[in-house]
Write a structure and sequence with these properties.
Number of helices of chain B: 18
Number of helices of chain A: 6
Number of domains of chain A: 2
Structural class of chain A: alpha+beta
Number of strands of chain B: 26
Order of helices and strands of chain A: EEHEEEHHHHH
Largest interface: A-B, 54 and 59 residues
Shape of chain B: globular
Chains: A alpha+beta, B alpha+beta, C alpha+beta
Largest sheet of chain A: 5 strands, mixed
CATH class of the largest domain in chain B: Alpha Beta
CATH architecture of the largest domain in chain A: Roll
Radius of gyration of chain B: 25 Å
CATH topology of the largest domain in chain B: Aldehyde Oxidoreductase, domain 4
Strand content of chain B: 15-25%
Structural class of chain B: alpha+beta
Number of strands of chain A: 5
Oligomer: heterotrimer
Strand order of the largest sheet of chain B: 3-5-1-12-9-10-11
Strand content of chain A: 5-15%
Distance between the termini of chain B: 46 Å
Strand order of the largest sheet of chain A: 2-1-5-3-4
CATH class of the largest domain in chain A: Alpha Beta
Helix content of chain A: 25-40%
Helix content of chain B: 25-40%
CATH architecture of the largest domain in chain B: 2-Layer Sandwich
CATH superfamily of the largest domain in chain B: Aldehyde oxidase/xanthine dehydrogenase, molybdopterin binding domain
CATH topology of the largest domain in chain A: Ubiquitin-like (UB roll)
Number of domains of chain B: 3
Chain lengths: 157, 708, 272
């Protein structure tokens, strides 16, 4: 049986544990991607969201075996991109980060949304972030920041 | 806008937005033991024996016998244990902790533990509770006379449910024995000194034996005010026994089932009306405190003081009790007792107005307190009460009067609308003489040779922006760029006790101390020297001394004010309630950073709407919380209140930094009443009396033909 | 690889399924919540054979590993199905959740299933022994159990290509997104030559399985709109008697009244 491996933030990594392990735990414990947070462990909060082949997934609901040979991107990889910088700037200007625990998942949800729809309206943004719970902000600042990033980062997505 | 109000990039932005911030569970686990708690399965029972499986090398079982000091977590009364005493008093109470290097093995060992209990009769429901932890009464005027002379007496009961903080990061604490024998405890928490004081007692050591640091904290809202003292003591006792660092991070279900919540309440209001005016209120407040008293005394006090709302009621009699039940202890939560009574008094005023056939807002306006009026405790509203202006601003923003009239007409379609408005205040800082007699806050500023200035204060960044706002205050006063001001996560070994991060006191109280310290430093500034200045709290001169025995005097130096509206639409086929618009005007004095303050207003408002609508905790008859998970306990998503509009009305406060007042808690307080008044109208003018008010509740009103 | 198989082809997947005690894993959203660390998963989520949407003369074939997000983007997927799956969870859940998983999890709260039941969908089940096509309704035995053999996989869902133009769908959840259904309701209506040929109503999340009552539907079949209107009170009464619902996060009584309201409202939208 082939060994279990996938591409994490651009580099191929091998996983020696069980294929049934949660991707969330593998990312945090094996590869020290601690930007990936566990908020509930049931797919109900989005704090552990990552991109798998460019698509948003809750890593608590993904078994490692399911990402065999796939591209997995966490904030550790995404933060090196120009798109991240556009989001970073907008989130900074609008103070859209409070406690910060939901932020990594929110940013990847925003990336997933903008890569599909580079000029979303407010309703689309709210929909795109609807799986990411934030208990601090009331969401306005986050929604406005995603909108601003889309405007000022025009052409990046 | 004042310069200080202009928004800056938050000090914590860079690390958080890039995912580099390390929260308690993010520290590398090498050399660390994982702790998991063995929890009671019965609501009340004597623990006869715990059968612990054979533990592999390196695994430990820790319980009350391992506590070197006193098995009491410092709070108001001495009743919360670190690990249970002879009995357990609620489902989920900690009996012991299992620790070991492999988390899964610890989990397996834990599930192999068996506890023999002798079952005792529990008290589960508030209405069957007979033992009160606290029972206070205060009064003003002559309530009996007013009732005797009344045209009409109204008598209603209001209920509120639990609210779970649902901070995104669960409770998490680590204890690490240090080489010099000190115990170092760090974690997700609001109040480093609360934890330190608790540890000293439990470990039986002096202040030199322990130090406590706050880690980056993923939300708190009051939920990490008292509870980290419990968990901090548990991991510290374990670390002491194991001689190794021990970390305990709750999973979501454990957190929801076992950590404190907002007190469920039942308030009975008897109100006399004469000549169209309220002449007296006789209020009986009961809070469900749960199994241990924790902070219930002070939560109850604030609730009681807020009981007459923003109104001038000449005669009042307020009784408040915190009742013991064998359920999870309740504790601090944004608003701290006030949301419960503000909800009740606002609904009561609404119902009386409807009965009198007058517009609720007009009726409320006729009773508003003004500057110079006496407060519920015989203190004074020393400063302007801007509610009339704020009402006008809010009305204009959401077109309140027109909509209220429009929705008053009979509605017949599938979807029916309503709009509601609530008025409230929040008193800044600790109740009464707490700041002066109990907290006695101290702050320091330390200037390095290179001219950077470090803030030495115990206030914790919990998302509310305090690292930024404090830095802004000091930078402004010293005329320094913000980068030159340093404010790290507090460690009791390094910072003085400026008090806990609670009660919306950080900016108004601690921020002002820092401003004064900065003035002092500016005056003594000497280039190239290390300098340190200190500032200590003193109560403003104008305050009327407060005594808690009589609830008399100024309970708060000043008040923040809010006017909030909600517009809803009810689906008559399903009962589902949509919030179409939520508007608020908030006076928190001068905003120290507009974005940060708006973030507090919007976040608090949405939490309040959740409290009133979708956030429901059910417990079964045995005292077990059902559905303790994010799929059952539903907090608002980005789609639930798509239109949430907040504005600031600035009535600056001379004793706050640059005019700032209390901010954090205010926006939650009035949301439930605004929401439910709107639902009342949408359902055809019924009288409703409880939150959370769900689709099923709305539906049952519709089925009964519109009788609340 | 420990505790898992990633087959390269459907054939290989069927061989593993026949020879090993494995749990088919498509999207993982349900399985990982009920996580069993010792589970042996057969990862079928990326098998091309199970990820297609195709059409033939009578049916739209939705592969078992097609995700809800993919279906929402496909013009061939009927609007009724899109109405249901667009309300599932949130983007990350729709990106992972699959049609086969929704069926295979055998929960009455699965949001695509009431649509399949109302639409008379079929399932194609495959194994090394061959394949069989079963009616979706007959696939379920009760809460959490179904007719999938230990060597079988769900290959695809077959939705009729025609007759789904007149539909009605409502979901009652606890909030606007990220909500597990407390009640879901799907109905499909069709007429030919002024006679009702189909009046299917399926109720999800209110009992152990999705409910549909063909004998009650028969009260309307073959009738004109005018006749159906006359029949309506008796029809609703019959449902009132028949709907025996379970208590959950909401009461059985609430569920029942809402189901009846939605049933009545669906008739109204169909002109009855």
């Amino acid at each position: 049986m082939a060994e279990l491996s996938f591409i994490l933030n651009g580099s191929r990594v091998r996983y020696d544990g069980s294929a049934a392990d949660r991707l969330l735990d593998a990312l945090r414990n094996e590869y020290h991607c601690t930007s990936v947070k566990c908020g509930c462990g049931e797919g109900e909060c989005g704090a552990c969201a990552v991109l798998i082949d460019g698509v948003l997934h809750n890593s608590c609901c993904v078994a490692v075996g399911a990402v065999q040979d796939a591209q997995v991107v966490t904030l550790e990889g995404y933060r090196e991109t120009a798109r991240f910088q556009a989001l970073d700037r907008a989130f900074a200007e609008l103070s859209a980060v409070q406690c910060g625990f939901c932020t990594p998942g929110i940013l990847l949800a925003a990336e997933a949304l903008l890569s599909r729809s580079p000029h979303p309206d407010e309703a689309e943004i709210r929909e795109g972030l609807s799986g990411n719970l934030c208990r601090c902000t009331g969401y306005n600042a986050i929604v406005n920041a995603v909108k601003r990033a889309a405007e000022e980062g025009d052409g990046l997505w | 806008m004042d310069t200080i109000s202009q928004s800056v990039v938050r000090k914590d932005h860079g690390d958080k937005v890039s995912g580099r911030s390390l929260y308690t569970g993010d520290y590398a686990p090498e050399g660390m033991l994982f702790g998991k708690l063995l929890r009671a399965e019965l609501a009340r029972a004597r623990v006869l024996r715990v059968h612990v499986p054979a533990l592999p090398e390196g695994y430990y079982y820790v319980d009350a016998k391992d506590i070197p000091g006193d098995n009491n977590v410092n709070m108001v009364l001495d009743d919360s244990p670190v690990f249970c005493r002879e009995t357990v008093e609620y489902i989920g109470e900690a009996i012991a902790m299992l620790c070991g290097p492999d988390e899964e093995t610890v989990g397996r060992l834990l599930s192999a533990c068996r506890v023999d209990y002798e079952k005792l009769e529990p008290v589960i429901r508030l209405d069957e509770a007979h033992e009160s932890f606290f029972d206070y009464t205060y009064s003003q005027g002559d309530t009996e006379k007013a009732f005797a002379e009344a045209d009409k007496i109204y008598d209603e009961q209001f209920e509120t449910g639990y609210q779970e903080h649902a901070y995104l990061e669960t409770q998490a604490m680590t204890a690490e024995p240090e080489a010099d024998g000190r115990m170092f405890v760090h974690g997700s928490l609001q109040c480093v000194y609360y934890v330190r004081n608790a540890l000293q007692r439990v470990l039986g050591c002096g202040p030199e034996g322990v130090h406590v640091m706050q880690d980056v904290t993923g939300g708190a809202f009051g939920g990490k005010e008292d509870y980290p003292s419990v968990l901090g003591c548990q991991v510290a006792v374990a670390a002491l026994k194991c001689g190794k660092p021990v970390r305990c991070v709750f999973d979501r279900r454990e957190d929801m089932a076992c950590s404190p919540k907002r007190h469920p309440s039942r308030c009975r209001y008897r109100v006399s009306v004469k000549d169209g005016r309220v002449t007296a209120m006789d209020v009986d407040i009961r809070f469900n405190a749960g199994a241990y008293s924790t902070l219930s005394a002070v939560v109850l006090q604030r609730g009681m003081i807020s009981a007459p709302g923003v109104y001038q009621i000449p005669n009042t009699r307020i009784r408040g009790r915190a009742m013991k039940t064998n359920t999870v202890p309740c504790g601090a939560f944004r608003g701290f007792g006030a949301p419960q009574t503000f909800f009740a008094v606002e609904m009561m005023m609404d119902h009386i107005a409807r009965d009198l056939g007058v517009d609720a807002l007009t009726f409320k306006q006729a009773h508003l307190s003004r500057q110079g009026d006496i407060t519920s405790t015989g203190g004074r509203y020393h400063f302007p009460v801007p509610l009339p202006d704020m009402i006008r601003e809010t009305e204009a923003l959401c077109d309140y009067r027109r909509k209220k009239e429009e929705y008053q007409k009979p509605q017949t379609g599938r979807f029916r609308r309503g709009i509601g408005m609530s008025l409230q205040f929040h008193g800044g800082g600790f109740t009464g003489s707490g700041e002066q007699d109990i907290i006695k806050a101290v702050v320091r500023l330390r200037k390095e040779r290179d001219g950077t200035v470090e803030i030495l204060a115990a206030s914790g960044e919990i998302g509310q922006g305090v690292r930024t706002t404090f830095s802004k205050i000091v930078a402004q006063e010293l005329g320094l760029p913000l980068e030159r001001i340093i404010f790290e996560y507090p460690d009791t070994a390094l910072v003085p006790d400026s008090g806990p991060t609670v009660a919306s006191r950080s900016i108004m109280v601690v921020g002002e101390l820092l401003r004064r310290a900065a003035v002092k430093l500016r005056e003594r500034w000497a280039d190239g020297e290390v300098q340190e200045v200190e500032e200590r709290y003193r109560a403003p001169d104008f305050m009327i001394p407060f005594t808690i025995d009589h609830f008399a005097g100024d309970a708060y130096a000043t008040y923040s004010w809010a006017v909030m509206t909600a517009e809803v639409e009810v689906d008559t086929l399903t009962g589902m309630i949509r919030v179409l618009d939520a508007c608020g005007s908030f006076d928190v004095g001068t905003p120290i950073d507009r974005n940060i303050v708006m973030g507090q207003m919007e976040g608090g408002f949405l939490q309040g709407i959740g409290y009133a609508s979708c956030e429901k905790i059910a417990s079964d008859g045995t005292g077990r919380i059902r559905g303790a998970s994010f799929s059952d306990y539903l907090i608002p998503t980005a789609m639930d209140v798509p239109q949430l509009r907040c504005m600031l009305h600035v009535e600056s406060y001379p004793d706050g930094p640059y005019g700032a007042k209390a901010a954090g808690e205010l926006p939650l307080v009035g949301a439930p009443a605004a929401f439910l008044e709107a639902v009342e109208q949408a359902l055809g003018g019924v009288s409703l009396s409880h939150v959370p008010f769900t689709a099923e509740d709305a539906f049952s009103v519709l089925m009964k033909g519109g009788e609340g | 690889m420990v505790n898992g198989y990633v087959p390269a082809s459907l054939q290989e997947a069927l061989e593993i399924r026949a020879g090993q005690d494995v749990i088919p894993y498509a999207g993982g959203t349900d399985l990982m919540v009920k996580r069993r660390p010792d589970a042996q998963y057969l990862f079928i989520g990326r098998l091309p054979e199970l990820r297609q949407i195709t059409e033939d003369e009578n049916y739209i074939h939705i592969g078992a590993a097609v995700t809800f997000t993919e279906a929402l983007a496909d013009p061939r997927v009927p609007a009724l199905m899109k109405a249901a799956v667009s309300r599932i969870g949130a983007p990350a859940i729709r990106n992972a959740g699959t049609f086969g998983g929704n069926v295979g999890n055998a929960s009455a709260k699965a949001d695509s299933v009431p649509v399949e039941v109302a639409a008379d969908a079929k399932l194609r089940l495959i194994s090394l022994r061959g394949e069989r096509v079963v009616e979706i309704e007959s696939f379920y035995h009760g809460h959490g159990t179904h007719d999938l053999g230990p060597d079988e996989l769900i290959a695809e869902i077959l939705l009729p290509r025609t007759g789904l133009d007149h539909w009605y769908y409502e979901k009652v959840g606890g909030r606007s997104a990220l909500a597990i259904s407390r009640i879901s309701f799907a109905s499909v209506f069709d007429m030919q030559e002024d006679r009702i040929t189909k009046a299917a109503a399926a109720f999800g999340a209110v009992s152990d399985t999705v409910l549909r009552f063909r004998d009650l539907e028969a009260m309307l079949i073959g009738r004109s709109v005018a006749e159906a209107k006359d029949m309506k009170p008796a029809y609703l009464r019959a449902y009132d008697e028949r709907l025996q619902l379970t208590e959950g996060r909401v009461s059985a009584q609430y569920r029942k009244r809402v189901c009846l309201n939605l049933l009545e409202d669906s008739l109204r939208t169909f002109g009855i």
